[in-house]
Sequence to fold (257 residues):
Amino acid sequence: MTWPIPDPTGTLLVLARIAGLVLTAPLLAHALVPARARAGLVGVLALAIAPVAAVELPSDPGLLPFAGAIAVETLVGAALGFVAQLVFAGVQLGGQIAGMEIGFGMANLLDPQSAQQSTVVAEWEQLLALLAYLALDVHHVLIAALVESFRVAPAGTALLGGELLRGVGMRGAELFAIGVRIAAPVLIVLLLVNATLGVLARTIPQLNVFVVGFPVNVGVGLVVLGASLPFTFRFLAERFAELGAVLGWMLRGIGHG
Fold:
């Protein structure tokens, strides 16, 4: 049995689309993943996909059209991975809001993925989202969408179509909705707790609300986070389940513009 030898030029186009996905997809694009590991993953995927991927080289053999095709292929792969990354951005936003409301804003950590400060609650929510991402095999969905993209639009013919850009825009618009729904249980309960403390402060002037309120907010907030864990995981599972349909919609834009 002979293994087909792919054309080097076509392989570069295939590799560009794969590299775009790896650079933006959750977990694969994490800053703690060594650059050599990511480069090795791109090479392995390219060697596996290139022999069976459809490739159409630009009609103009010049360097500029080929560079443009490489750029478009990279952007297409990056868009597919970025859509999944937006769910994690929404989760981090919700954890950041909840953490600030609980009172963990003074104990910020440095998130290695975004290289920005985030609360411990945001880090915890990110880990929960990552566990759901791996448990539901969402990374397999991304790779399957990548392979399907070569059937819909052979390497070298991909377009930044309206459906592709619209899919990224719609998922980006949902980022704030995801963040609010993640933080909603903590916000609602702590609002009631603070209202109760305000009433107590009016009825018992000797009560130091500032001293009592902080540990109460921390304790109640952590209890609410633990109690809402099953609902949060179910919510994340729903968001990740929608990802397959969104990717399929975006792939139609790659081929038809």
